[in-house]
Amino acid sequence: MAGGGTLSVALPGWTPAVAAERPAWFCVRAQPRREHVAAGHLRLLREVEVFFPRIRFRRPTVRGGVWVTEALFPGYLFARFDWGRHLRWVQASPGVVCVVHFGQRWPTIPAAVVEELRRRLGEEEVKILGERLRPGDRARVMGGVLQGLEGVVDRVVPARRRVQVLLEFLGRQVSVEIPEEQVSPCSDLRLRLNVAL
């Protein structure tokens, strides 16, 4: 299976019924918000390669913007290993829920997909999302007297670190200029990466 595919297994012997590329990339499901724990423990295993793509961005809070790093694919990471020899080790690692499978079918991830993601994210496996808001984005006010209101970004003023937002207020649209650390996008920033598996 040169480009990835599916590994069929015959349980309970845990041996593949079809020969797979050895080792192969698999999708690993991690405990919620513990992807980093799973990745760290998997990296300790000999003959297991780990790819844990993440994004870093400023998240607005009521106390100002805070830089956060999150999984690009929340709850998942990738591991390359010999399924027949290392499956039990991988699944028993702290932070790991399971290796993704569908009954007795264990899908593999094409190596080209992982390499393309690595190329886009760089050596550190982290993509920094600098430009948070663009005109036309839906946004939520996270601080100040207008906290909780949602509107559409009309203009971004980077030199003054402010965002002009059109808000529905008292039955009409009002344009207000707000410090950028008090405005948050309503959609997930991961959607901007245009990552397709």
UniProtKB/TrEMBL annotation:
One annotated GO biological process: DNA-templated transcription elongation
Pfam families given in the database record: NusG
Species of provenance: Limisphaera ngatamarikiensis
Protein name: NusG-like N-terminal domain-containing protein
GO terms under cellular component: cytosol
Keywords in alphabetical order: Transcription, Transcription antitermination, Transcription regulation
InterPro entries, per the entry: NGN-like_dom, NGN_dom_sf, NusG-like, Translation_prot_SH3-like_sf
Entry keyword annotation includes DNA repair: no
NusG-like N-terminal domain ranges (all copies): 24-117
Listed SUPFAM superfamilies: N-utilization substance G protein NusG, N-terminal domain, Translation proteins SH3-like domain
